[in-house]
Amino acid sequence: MTHVEAQVEQLFDRYGARYRWLATVTVMLGTMSVVLASTIINVAIPTIMVEFQLAQDQVHWLATGFLAAMTVGMLTNAWCTHRFGARGAYLLAMAAFIVVSVIGAVSEHFVTLVAARVGQGLLAGLIQPLAMITIFQVFPLNRRGQAMGIYGLGVVLGPAVAPAIGGVLVDTLSWRAVFLVVLPACVVGMVMAWRFLPGRDAKARSVTLDWIGLLQLSVGITVLLWALANSHRRGLEDPVLLAGLFVGPLLLVCFVAWQRRARHPLMDLRVFRYRGFTGSFIMSMVIGAGVFASTYVTPLYFQQVLGESAASAGLMLMPAGLAMAFTFPVAGHLTDRLPEARLIVAGLVLFVLNMALMAGASLATSAVWLVWWTLLGRVGLGLMMPPSSTGALGLLPPGLIPQGSGVFNFARQIGGAVGVNLCALTIQWFSHQHANRFPSAALAQHWEYGFDRAFGLLLMIFLLSLMPLWYMHRGLTGKGERG
After folding, report:
1. For the packed helices 367-394 and 466-477, what is the interaxial angle rounded to 10 degrees?
2. HEC states along the chain?
3. What is the C-alpha radius of gyration for the chain, rounded to an integer number of angstroms?
4. Are the C-beta atoms of 305 and 451 separated by less than 8 Å?
5. Distance CA 480, CA 483 (A)
6. Are 396 and 388 in contact (CB under 8 A)?
7. Are 458 and 261 in contact (CB under 8 A)?
8. Nearest residue to 413 (alpha-carbon basis) of 87, 86, 75, 96
9. Greater pLDDT, 346 or 1
10. Which residue, 280, 295, 479, 477, is CA-closest to 389?
11. How much is the pTM?
12. Secondary structure of 151-184 in HEC code, one letter for each residue
């Protein structure tokens, strides 16, 4: 028995069987706080654009920076937990999360605001994986599915209600309040973590953090996203932009090469040796783009095209969020009974239909229809996510499942960051083109033209994902084979 297992046994002796749920609630408070923070700011984007005089290709960094930093935080979670223990990692991350959230709330400059969001994302990446680690520590094998189902529903409900909460705060108080609303839950979570989470394993051998890989990945992602976001403003002939488009991917290639030889890599690339996993990796990126980009774009559409208030936009999104949350357990149940690819295709069809309808909408389209169409897309994403995760990990032998889970989650976050980046750039570029061609048209018409193209972009990305889905399906029909 390890030192950590002994601590868990002592906690069971002290609190009895209810300790399982005390520990689960503790990690859920942290995870729901950071998940809520990831999406609650989206309804505040138009207000922030006005206050700081920003365009779409600038303000999107509030979402993109969070998502990109979250990928880095997730990859450092294993080292941080090993170094400080579950309790220490949780307390440090939550304390730092409170600090950067307060900095975001009082920011007077957009650069400071983005830095606060990056900090939130990095710490969110550290906090989220702790939940799965804790659940696996305190629940026996035959009850982990039940615990993960309850935990997963709680996590998905956060983004479902975030737009409504954020909208009310923006309209009644200020956009700054969205940075502070989760802090009481953070404090309660810290108090509970001090009592209910185990400390570090004092006998475990030290593990070195892969600083070289971390630097390559962080700088590579940042440079690439910066270059994509600034292509509209600088133009493709700009030497600095061209350097960014070259250096960013080069650093990411160097990161992959380094991970193959690093003693303690951030990512275990052995998972890509198994047939179909590359396809599942790409599918995870596509689903991430769909989840995060649509969550970012849709509330902006309701506000900037339809002229709805932040609170109204948030309430309009709530039915779709709740539908996605309650689709999760149904999709999980169906995943055990139907081929993963069949469920993913069903979800893909619904999401593509949602994007096609949104792209074809006009200023005269009833808001009721838009709410229903958004709900349709969210149900589609809810159908896709459980089978895509189960299918990806089902391609791997048991010994590589933890590493595969980390790589799969990394793909989803990176896909989300790139998806938000490209959609924001598309909206800005096409809105600007429409304004130049039709200067007498209303501002809402300019925005609508740009948003329609962003919805069309997501539609095309999901249609193209049929190819990696086919490779994933081939891998699942021949499990255990190496590619």
Report:
1. 40
2. CCHHHHHHHHHHHHHHHHHHHHHHHHHHHHHHHHHHHHHHHHHHHHHHHHHHCCCHHHHCHHHHHHHHHHHHHHHHHHHHHHHHHHHHHHHHHHHHHHHHHHHHHCCCCHHHHHHHHHHHHHHHHHHHHHHHHHHHHHCCHHHHHHHHHHHHHHHHHHHHHHHHHHHHHHHHCCHHHHHCCCHHHHHHHHHHHHHHCCCCCCCCCCCCCCHHHHHHHHHHHHHHHHHHHHHHHHCCCCHHHHHHHHHHHHHHHHHHHHHCCCCCCCCCHHHHHECCHHHHHHHHHHHHHHHHHHHHHHHHHHHHCCCCCHHHHHHHHHHHHHHHHHHHHHHHHHHCCCCHHHHHHHHHHHHHHHHHHHHCCCCCCCHHHHHHHHHHHHHHHHHHHHHHHHHHHHCCCHHHHHHHHHHHHHHHHHHHHHHHHHHHHHHHHHHHHHHHHCCCCCHHHHHHHHHHHHHHHHHHHHHHCHHHHHHHHHHHHCCCCEC
3. 22
4. yes
5. 10
6. no
7. no
8. 75
9. 346
10. 280
11. 0.81
12. HHHHHHHHHHHHHHHHHHHHHHCCHHHHHCCCHH
Cα 299 from chain centre: 17
Predicted confidence (pLDDT) at residue 311 exceeds the cutoff of 50: yes
What are the distances in angstroms from CA 254 to CA 148, 208, 225, 379, 406?
36, 20, 17, 38, 20
C-alpha distance across the termini of the chain, in Å: 37
The residue type of 94 is: M
Question: Who's near 361: CB < 8 A, 6+ residues apart?
Answer: 369, 370, 373, 452
Q: Which two tokens stand for residue 307?
A: 């002229």
What band does 83 get if pLDDT is binned at 50, 70 and 90? confident
Q: Which residue has the higher pLDDT, 274 or 333?
A: 274
Exposed, middle or buried by CB within 10 Å (0-12, 13-18, 19+), for 237? exposed
pLDDT band at 152 (very low <50, low <70, confident <90, very high): low
| Rounded-to-integer distance, Cα 45 and Cα 59, Å | 7
User: Which residue do the tokens 């999709």 mark?
Assistant: 331
Q: Which two tokens stand for residue 312?
A: 């109204």
For range 338-364, the mean pLDDT: 88
Residue tagged 């084979």 (tokens):
481
Place of tokens 């920003």: 54
